[in-house]
């Protein structure tokens, strides 16, 4: 079943950018050094990296679907 993308291209780019920003922030030296001494922060960092990747993946999926346009489908 093919439906409309969940996000408009502008929203998809913004969500992808937010995911990228989240990934960058989690590996900045002050945060990365803090996670070496605190196990809770370390696992939270893993979760944030996963969330950033998920956001970028969703945004990329919607941009690809939007870029293909409406394909002819058998009905």
Number of strands: 0
The arrangement of helices and strands along the chain is HHH
Rg over alpha carbons: 17 Å
Biggest sheet features: none
Number of helices: 3
Based on Cα principal axes, name the global outline. elongated
- Average per-residue pLDDT, rounded, comes to 87
Structural class based on helices, strands and sheet pairing: mainly alpha
Cα-to-Cα separation, first versus last residue: 11 Å
Instruction: Give the total of domains.
Output: 1
Q: Which segments are poorly predicted (pLDDT under 50) over 5 or more consecutive residues? A: none
Helical residues, percent: over 70%
Strand content: under 5%
Write up this protein.
It is a single chain. This protein is mostly helical and 75 residues long. It has one domain (9-67). It has three helices and no strands. The chain has helices at residues 9-26, 29-35, 39-68. The longest helix is centred in the C-terminal third of the chain and has 30 residues, at 39-68. The N and C termini lie close together (11 Å).
Protein topology:
Blueprint: H1 9-26, H2 29-35, H3 39-68
Helix pairs in contact: 1-3
Structural features:
single chain; 75 residues; mainly alpha; 3 helices; 73% helix
Write a compact overview of the structure shown.
The chain is mainly alpha-helical.
């Amino acid at each position: 079943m093919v439906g409309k993308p969940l996000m408009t291209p502008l929203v998809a780019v913004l969500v992808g950018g937010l995911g990228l920003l989240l990934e960058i922030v989690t590996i900045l030296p002050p945060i990365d050094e803090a996670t070496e001494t605190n196990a809770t922060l370390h696992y939270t960092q893993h979760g944030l990296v996963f969330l950033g990747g998920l956001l970028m993946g969703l945004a990329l999926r919607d941009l690809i679907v939007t870029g293909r346009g409406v394909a002819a489908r058998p009905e």
